[in-house]
């Protein structure tokens, strides 16, 4: 990837906002369908191999009630051939956290599961790796390593097969 392109995106966004980088010799007809003012949601449409797709990049809020509302609003952007990537800031299942973490009740988790079900999406990492444990976030809290998956790649069910 051309590092100057990445630097240009960072310059334009500053320290705030999600981005999507496309490899232009593979992807065409790229349009920005929506971008929120908080830098948490970017919706782009594009063509690949003659098919139209939508990709949504998210950085969900940290606060549970805000995250719940954010996730509920994603469904309106999910059309045919939609992929969602990003930091959802919620643990989807107990297998997505290490033994040093607590699997807390989180109402936004239910909204994410509902979104996945309603839009026929799958967590492609979980499908490929089944029961394997792998983590996207690691931090030391009170001398203990805490790990969890909060970044997901959700694909339409038929694309993941």
UniProtKB/TrEMBL annotation:
Q: Which domain of life is it from?
A: Eukaryota
Q: Which SUPFAM superfamilies match?
A: DNase I-like
The cross-references to InterPro entries, in alphabetical order and at most eight, read: Endo/exonu/phosph_ase_sf (IPR036691)
The protein's name is Uncharacterized protein
Q: Which organism is it from?
A: Cyclopterus lumpus
